[in-house]
Amino acid sequence: MSTELVREVHQVGLATATNYTIKRNFWSVFERVFRVFTPDGQMMMYVKHPLFKLREEFQVTRDEAQTQPVMRIKSRQAIAINFTYDVIEAGTEVLLGSVQKRGLKSIVRDKFMILDGSGAEIGYMEEQGASVLRRFFPWLTSKHAIFIGGAQVGFIRQQFRFFTKEFHVELTPGGVQPHFVLACALLALIAEARRESN
Q1: Cβ-count burial 145-160 (b if 16+ within 10 Å, e if not)
Q2: What pTM was estimated for this model as a whole?
Q3: Can you tell me the distance from the alpha carbon of 165 to that of 67, in angstroms, rounded to the nearest whole number?
């Protein structure tokens, strides 16, 4: 496994918490906004994801003013079947890893390949449960599991809410940087939101 993925986390909240909540508004026009909260309600990450951009690139920040960057997520392609997103640490510009959407394999169940900073495959992320039914009934809640190095390091479970989309994320302590696993979770939820809007 890449040493960049197992480096000590300097953010105290990310280093100690293992449960997070990701929220986004149910409806959006020009952009989707995701907020990541710790169990005590502290916002740890803020993402403003553009809807109309040929090649996706967006910042993950600690604040809504977007003055405290954490990561930058950038698509390698403008048009592709298997989109690859690089997760780059802010400040150092170190490539933490990449997430590749498996286009054809995601027709009935979203699946992503996870790569380390050198491009080696180290894990995957997969939609769980009644994925086929969710293609026809998008109000059904979703689940995703994240595996790295043969072990499950994260699980995303949607909670039903009327006016917001809310997801609970459980991380396994130790091993992989929490903010890289949260980046994987955000990319899975962005892919889900894109499919629902289509």
Answers
A1: bbebeeeebbbbbbee
A2: 0.81
A3: 25
